[in-house]
Amino acid sequence: MRPRGSKRNPRQPASEDGFGSEEEVIVATQSRRRAAPRVSDDDEDFEIVAKVEDSDSESREATPIVPRTRASGKDASGPRRQPKAGASNTQDPTALIRYPVDSRLTSTRVYHGIFQKLLRTYFYEDYYGPDPGATAAAVEIFRRWIPFDVLPSRNLSQEGSSAPSPWVPPGFESSQSMRMSRWYHRYEEAIRAGTMTAPHTELVGKETASQYTINPNREILLLVGTGNSQRQHKLSLQVPVTLSDSEPQPDDETIPEKVSGWMFDVGGIVLSVSWAPRPQATIQIIAMAVSPFADQDFDAFQDESTTEHPYHHGTVQIWTSPSDPNGNGVASSPRLWRTLLFNWGRVKKLLWCPAAPVDRDDLLGLLAVMCADGLVHVTAIAGDLDSQAETFERVYEPVVSLGFPREEDSRVTSFAWGGINRIVTGHQDGSIALWSVYPRACLFRQAVHHTHVLHLATGYPSQPQLVASHPVSGLSAFIDLSNPSSEIATTTNPSITPQHNMLEWSDHLQGFVSTVPSSKPLNTAVGFFHSRTFPATPRKVLEGDVLLSALAVGVHHPFVLTALLDGSVWACNPMNRVFLPRHAPPGWKIKIFHHEHVPRVRFTGSVPVHPEPADQAALSSRGISRVLQGFEPVTNQGPKAIEFAATGKATGAKGKRKVRTKTKKPGSQPQDPGPAVDEDDDTTMYADPSKLVVHEPLSRVTAMAWNPNLECATWAVFGMASGLVRIQDIGIEI
C-alpha cells in the first residue's frame, strides 16, 4: 500500500471531503505556476504585504489548461492554447514579479521602493496582522519614516514629518478633550452637591514661598557651541540664553531669525519633566520637578534639622514657551509662570493628564505628582497664561490623593496615566493597582512582583489596558488589565536602573522601549518589546558603552532619545534596527549634545581638578558646564561592531585560536604557561582601563521628554543634574 503522498500516482480521484475534483486540482496547480501579472508603479510600495494571487478568472475561462507530456515536453493531443486577441507573445523584461511574502510560507527578501531596503516582511503579519488594514497601516508608517535615520522632519508639510498614530480613530484628541470636559463638569457638580471635597489652594507671596523655593545664590558658567567655536555665558537663575542652529548668541539683542532652542538654570536637580497636552495652542507648558542639590550630596550628608530645605517641602516649576505659528522654531524665550508649593515631600515623578478640556480657558489640565509620602496627588492647574508676573501657589488639598497611606509597605513607587480618569500605580510591595480619579476608587490590585516597582508604562492611547513594569528584582512583567488573572507574562531582566523614565510606550510601533540586559559591564542596550511578544523577544534599538540615565519616545513619531551617564544624548530611528535584517547596512544615530559639569567644590577642595589656580570667575560661580553640539551621525552599532569595523574584521567571525603548547623537561617543575595570545574575543576591548570612567554625577541628563502636541512634535526638553534645562526643536530641515 502506497502512502497518500506518493509521486508515482499524483492524481487521485475526486474525494468526498470537499477538496475538489481532479480537474479543479490541476487547474489550481497550473495557475499557481503561471507568471504573476505586471505590477504598476503605484502598487510597488505595497508589495511587502501583497499575497501571491492567481491569474484573473477571465483568463482562466478563456484559456483552457492542457497538461504537457513529461517525456517530450510537447503538448498532448488536443487543441493548442490560443492567446487572447491583441495580446503579445513576448513578455516585458522590466516587469516586476510578485514575491511570495506570506510569513507562514517563507521569509523572502523583497525590494521596497527607491530606498532599496531589505525589510523583515514576516514581522508585519506577526506584529500587526492578520488584518490587512492594520498591516497596510504599518507599511505606511515604515514608508514614512524609514528614510529618516536619526530625526524626523520639522515641517509638517514635508515627507517624514510628525503624524498622529494610525491605531486610534480620526479625531481622537478632540473626542478625548470633550470627554475630559464632561468629566470635569461632573466633578464640579459633585463639589457643589457636597459629595466631593473641594481642592484648596492659595496664592502666596515671594517671602512665604522662599521657605520652599530653591535659590543657590550663585551663577553658573556655561560654555556652549561646537568644538572650535564655543562661547562663554554667565547664567543667572531662571534667565534663558539663546541657541541657534549654528551657534549661541551672547544676548537677547542679537537673537537670530531662526531660533532652535533655549537654555536656562532652574537652581536644582531636575528629576522629572512633562509637557502639557495643548493641541493647536500657541503657548507650550512644561512642568518640572526640581530637587535641591543637597538631597544627592552623598559626600556631605545633612540631617533634616540642619538642612536648608526640609525634606517634607516639595516644589514644581511650571514654565511656558511660546511657539511660532510660522514654523520659526522656539522663537520666544521661555519664562517661569508658576511654582507649586506643598508639604508632601520631594516630587519624584510628575505627569500631565493626556487630555485637556476644550471649553475651559482657565483650566490648563490635571497634573499628577508622586511625592515622598508614598502617594500620587492630582491637582488642577488653572490661571491666565498672559500674566507676566511669576506666581506662587501653595496646595493644601488636591483634587484626589491615590495610594494606601495606612499600609506602610505599600508606598507608590511609580505610576502612569491610563486615560482621562484612570491612573495605574506600582507599589513598594510589588503590587499594581488601577485607580479611578473621580469617583475615587481602587478598581483593581494584584501582586505582580515581589519588590519595588521602579518603572511602569501603559499602552495609552491605542491600548490603555496594557501595562508593562520593571521591578528591582529584575523580573519584567506584562499584564492585560482587561483580563488580569490570565493575561500576564513575565521574564528575567537583570538590568536594574533606579532612575525613573526608563520604560516608554511607542504607539506607532505598538510596543515598549526600555533597557535590555547585557553581558558586558561597559555595554548598555536599549531594546524594543512589541506588545504581542513582550517581553520574550526584545529587538535592540541602540547600544553604548555607558549606562543609561533617561529615555524618551516620540508621541507623534517613533524616534527615540537616550541619555547616558556621561552627559551625552543620542537620537535614532528604532525601525532601522528592529525591522531590518542583520545583513542589511546598519542605521545611524546622532549625538544631540554632550553636557559636562565641574562643580565649584572641585576647584576649592583639598584636591582640585586643576593643579594651577582657577580663575576668579570659576571660584565665584556654582560651577562650570560645557555643552558640546554639532556632531555628525555615526553608525548605530555597539562598541564591539564599531571596533571590528575599524580593524577590518567581520562581526562574529571566528579565527584560529592558538593553543598553548607545553614542553616538559625531565625533572623540572610544571610552570604556568601564561595567557594565550591572538584570541578572537572581545575581552581586551571591554577590559580597556580608559573606558572605566566614573563620571561627575552632576553631568548626567536626568529627565527628558518629547512634546505631545502635533504642531510642536519635534520639540524636546532636557533636564540635567547640574540645574540646566534645554528646550530645543531638534527636527531636521529638508
UniProtKB/TrEMBL annotation:
Basic residues composition-biased segments: 1-10, 654-665
Keywords: Nucleus, Transcription
Lipid biosynthesis is among the record's keywords: no
Chief localization: nucleus
Annotated stretches, region: Disordered: 1-93, 652-684
GO cellular component: nucleus; transcription factor TFIIIC complex
One biological process term in Gene Ontology: transcription by RNA polymerase III
InterPro entries tied to this protein: GTF3C_component, WD40/YVTN_repeat-like_dom_sf, WD40_repeat_dom_sf
Localization of this protein: Nucleus
Biased composition (Basic and acidic residues): 48-61
Gene3D superfamilies documented for this protein: YVTN repeat-like/Quinoprotein amine dehydrogenase (2.130.10.10)
Stored PANTHER family: GENERAL TRANSCRIPTION FACTOR 3C POLYPEPTIDE 2 (PTHR15052:SF2), RNA POLYMERASE III TRANSCRIPTION INITIATION FACTOR COMPLEX SUBUNIT (PTHR15052)
Name this polypeptide is given: Uncharacterized protein
Organism: Plectosphaerella cucumerina
